[in-house]
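Work Package 4 report. The design task specified in the project plan requires that, given a folded chain encoded as C-alpha cells, an amino acid be chosen for each position. We show below one input record used in the internal validation round.
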C-alpha cells in the first residue's frame, strides 16, 4: 500500500491546525497579490517596493501566476481566483504568436494553467494553447537525444536540468492526441538527463553542453549555481520533482530510482534549519538561501511520498514538512508590505540583485504543497489524471 499523506496529515491535529492556518493566510495574501496585479498591466513575477515588478510577456515564469490562481480556486472555491487565472491566461497569447522567441519552458508557461483549465472546463482555446506549446517543445528535440533549452547562436547543444519539469506537457500531448511521439521525445530527454546530468552521488549539473551534430558531451558549466561541479539547489529540486513526474507519467522504474537518489542527496545536504542554500557547494560566506528550491523540493517530496510504499513514504513526507514549516516560520511575509509571500528566493548565485528576493513560483510550490496536504490531486503537472 502506498503512503497516504492526506490520511497521515488529518490524523495529526497539530499539523492540521497549521495547514488550516496556512490556507487562511494564503487566501488573505493571494487576494492582496491579486488586487495589486489588477493595478498593473503585466504578469506578476517578483516584487519591488511593495509592488509587483514589471516583467515581459514571454518570460519563462509567466505561467505561475495563473497557475497559482487555479490552485487557490481549488483550495477556496472562490471565483475571483478563477477569473484572475482566465484574465491572465489571455495575456500569454502574445508569447505564443511570437513562438520563435519561446524557449523550452513552455510547460511552465502553459500546462500548469491552460492544461488545468482544459481539464476542469474543457475550454477549447486552452486545449489549443497547450497543444501548440507542446508542438513548440517537440520541435526543439535534437535526435541525438536531448531537448534544446535556450535560443541564440552557439546554444544549439545546450540542455538544462530544469527541462525535466517541462516534460509533462509532452506526456499530456500524447495522452490527449493518442500520438506517442511526444512521450517518446520526453523519455529520450529524460533518459539522456539520467546519464548526463545526475551524478553518482545524486547531485546534478545545471547545464550540459552537447555537440549538436553527434550528441557528444562537451561541457557542464555552473549555470545558475556557484561553479561547474557544484550543486545548484534549485536544479536539484527540478530533478527531484521532474523525475518523479516522469515516473508517474510513464511507470519507468529508473525514473523513480533517480528521483529517490536526488531526494536522498537533497535531504543529506540541507542544513539543520531546513532552508536550502542557493548552492549546496557554495562557500560558507555569504550565506545565500533559496526558498523556491525549498518549496519545489517539498512539493516534489510529497509527490514522491505518495508514489512509494507506506514504510518508505514517511521519510520523504517528513522531510517535506520540515522544509515547508521552517521556510514559512523564518522567511514568509504575510503582511501587505509585499504582494508575495516568500522573501528569500534567489534567481542565480552570481546574480547579486537577484539574491533573497520574492519570486512568485516560490509561492506557487508552497500553495501546491498545502493543497496536496488538504487532498488536492496533482493537477498542474498531470491535469487529465483521474485521481
Ligand atoms: N532557469 C529556471 C530557474 O531559474 O529555475
Amino acid at each position: 500500500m502506498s503512503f497516504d499523506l492526506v490520511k497521515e496529515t488529518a490524523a495529526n491535529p497539530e499539523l492540521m491546525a497549521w495547514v488550516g492556518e496556512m490556507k487562511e493566510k494564503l487566501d488573505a495574501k493571494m487576494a492582496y497579490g491579486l488586487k495589486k496585479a489588477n493595478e498593473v498591466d503585466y504578469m506578476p513575477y517578483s516584487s519591488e517596493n511593495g509592488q509587483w515588478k514589471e516583467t515581459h510577456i514571454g518570460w519563462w515564469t509567466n505561467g505561475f501566476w495563473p497557475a497559482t490562481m487555479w490552485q487557490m480556486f481549488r483550495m477556496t472555491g472562490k471565483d475571483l481566483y478563477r477569473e484572475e487565472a482566465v484574465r491572465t491566461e489571455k495575456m500569454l497569447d502574445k508569447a505564443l504568436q511570437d513562438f520563435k522567441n519561446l524557449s523550452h519552458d513552455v510547460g511552465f508557461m502553459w500546462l500548469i494553467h491552460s492544461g488545468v483549465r482544459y481539464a476542469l472546463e474543457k475550454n477549447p482555446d486552452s486545449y489549443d494553447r497547450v497543444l501548440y506549446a507542446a508542438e513548440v517543445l517537440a520541435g526543439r528535440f535534437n535526435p541525438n537525444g536531448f531537448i534544446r533549452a535556450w535560443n541564440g547562436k552557439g546554444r544549439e547543444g545546450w540542455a538544462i536540468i530544469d527541462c525535466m519539469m517541462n516534460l509533462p506537457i509532452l506526456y499530456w500531448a500524447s495522452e490527449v492526441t493518442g500520438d506517442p511521439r511526444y512521450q517518446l521525445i520526453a523519455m529520450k530527454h529524460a533518459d539522456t538527463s539520467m546519464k548526463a546530468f545526475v551524478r553518482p552521488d545524486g547531485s546534478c549539473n545545471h547545464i550540459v553542453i552537447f555537440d549538436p551534430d553527434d550528441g557528444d558531451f562537451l561541457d557542464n558549466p555552473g549555470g545558475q549555481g556557484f561553479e561547474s561541479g557544484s550543486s545548484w539547489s534549485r536544479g536539484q529540486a527540478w530533478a527531484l520533482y521532474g523525475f518523479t513526474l516522469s515516473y508517474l507519467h510513464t511507470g519507468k522504474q529508473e525514473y523513480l530510482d533517480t528521483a529517490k537518489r536526488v531526494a536522498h542527496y537533497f535531504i543529506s545536504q540541507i542544513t539543520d534549519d531546513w532552508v536550502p542554500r542557493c548552492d549546496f557547494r557554495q562557500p560558507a560566506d555569504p550565506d545565500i538561501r533559496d526558498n523556491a528550491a525549498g518549496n519545489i523540493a517539498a512539493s516534489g517530496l510529497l509527490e514522491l511520498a505518495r508514489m512509494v510504499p507506506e514504510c518508505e513514504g514517511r521519510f520523504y513526507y517528513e522531510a517535506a514538512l520540515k522544509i515547508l514549516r521552517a521556510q514559512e516560520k523564518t522567511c514568509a511575509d504575510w503582511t501587505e508590505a509585499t504582494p508575495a509571500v516568500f522573501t528569500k528566493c534567489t534567481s542565480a548565485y552570481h546574480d547579486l540583485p537577484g539574491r533573497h528576493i520574492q519570486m512568485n513560483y516560490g509561492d506557487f510550490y508552497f500553495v501546491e504543497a498545502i493543497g496536496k496536504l488538504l487532498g488536492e490531486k496533482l493537477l498542474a503537472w498531470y491535469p487529465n489524471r483521474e485521481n
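The chain has a mean pLDDT of 97. Validation will be extended to a larger panel in the next phase.
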